[in-house]
C-alpha cells in the first residue's frame, strides 16, 4: 500500500478492497494508457471486463466506490468530475459500472533500501474493488495495466506497501501472484513489495 497525506491504510486482497498503504503527494504527472502486455503476450480480460484510464466523468462513480468499499479514503476531487493532478487513475468496468479503481504515480523515487534500479519508480497508492465483484481478477487486471503503463513510460520498476492487520496472508498471496516480491523491511508493518515492468528483467530477478 502507500501512505499519502490524504489516505489512511486499507487492505486490498481478493476479499478486501485495497491492501495498499498510500503515501504520495498529488503533484505528479499522469500518463495515458497504451498496449497492455504480460509475460505470455497481450493481457486478455473476460468479455465482461473493461480496464482503462479513468476520465473526469468517472469521478463520481469512483467516489461512490470509495464510499462503499473504502469509506476512510478521501474522495478528493472525484465527486466534481475531476482527477487528482499528477495521478495515474485506472478503472475496471462491468456493464458500464465502475467496479474497480487504482491510483498511482509513475515518477516516484523509492528511497528505502532495495530498489533494484534508479528512479523514476512507479508507486501504486490504492487498489479498490467493489465488494460484490471480488475474486474475479479485477484487482490483478488493474495492477497489470498500471505495470504496462509504467513500462511504456520507461519506468522499469514499480512498488507498493501492503497493509498489515486482518487478512495479511491473503493480501501477500495476492500480490505475490501478481508478480510482486518483498523488499527489505522498513518502518511499515509489512515490507514493501516491488515488481519489474519488463518481462526479461522479471525472468532474471
Number of domains: 1
The CATH superfamily is: Gcn5-related N-acetyltransferase (GNAT)
Poorly predicted parts: 1-17, 22-42
Elements, N to C (H/E): EEEEEHEEEHEHEEH
Question: Strand portion, in percent?
Answer: 15-25%
Number of strands: 11
Sheet with the most strands? 7 strands, mixed
Question: What are the main properties of this structure?
Answer:
Aminopeptidase, 205 residues, two-stranded antiparallel ribbon, 7-stranded mixed sheet, alpha+beta
Question: Would you kindly provide a written description of the structure presented here, covering whatever features stand out?
Answer:
The model is unreliable at about 1-15 and about 20-40 (pLDDT under 50). The protein has helices at about 60-70, 140-150, 170-175, 200-205, and strands spanning about 10, 20, 35-40, 40, 50-55, 90-95, 95-110, 120-130, 155-160, 180, 195. It has a single domain, classed as Aminopeptidase (3-Layer(aba) Sandwich), CATH 3.40.630. The longest helix has 15 residues, at about 140-150. It starts with 9 loop residues before the first strand and ends with a helix. The strands form three sheets. The protein has a seven-stranded mixed β-sheet, with helices on both faces. The chain has a two-stranded antiparallel sheet with strand order 1-2. The chain contains four helices and eleven strands; from the N terminus they run E-E-E-E-E-H-E-E-E-H-E-H-E-E-H.
Amino acid at each position: 500500500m502507500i501512505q499519502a497525506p490524504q489516505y489512511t491504510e486499507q487492505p486490498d486482497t481478493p476479499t478486501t478492497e485495497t491492501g495498499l498503504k498510500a503515501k504520495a503527494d498529488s503533484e505528479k504527472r499522469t500518463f495515458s494508457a497504451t498496449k497492455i502486455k504480460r509475460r505470455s503476450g497481450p493481457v486478455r480480460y473476460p468479455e465482461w471486463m473493461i480496464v482503462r484510464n479513468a476520465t473526469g466523468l468517472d469521478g463520481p462513480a469512483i467516489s461512490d466506490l470509495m464510499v462503499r468499499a473504502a469509506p476512510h479514503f478521501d474522495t478528493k476531487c472525484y465527486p466534481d468530475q475531476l482527477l487528482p493532478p499528477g495521478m495515474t487513475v485506472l478503472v475496471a468496468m462491468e456493464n458500464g459500472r465502475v467496479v474497480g479503481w487504482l491510483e498511482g504515480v509513475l515518477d516516484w523515487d523509492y528511497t528505502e533500501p532495495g530498489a533494484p534500479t534508479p528512479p523514476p519508480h512507479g508507486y501504486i497508492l490504492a487498489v479498490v474493488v467493489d465488494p460484490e465483484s471480488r475474486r474475479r481478477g479485477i484487482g490483478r487486471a488493474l495492477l497489470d495495466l498500471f505495470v504496462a503503463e509504467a513500462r511504456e513510460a520507461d519506468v522499469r520498476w514499480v512498488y507498493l506497501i501492503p497493509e498489515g492487520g486482518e487478512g495479511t496472508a491473503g493480501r501477500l498471496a495476492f500480490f505475490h501472484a501478481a508478480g510482486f516480491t518483498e523488499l527489505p523491511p522498513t518502518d511499515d508493518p509489512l515490507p514493501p513489495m516491488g515488481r519489474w515492468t519488463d518481462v526479461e528483467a522479471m525472468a532474471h530477478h
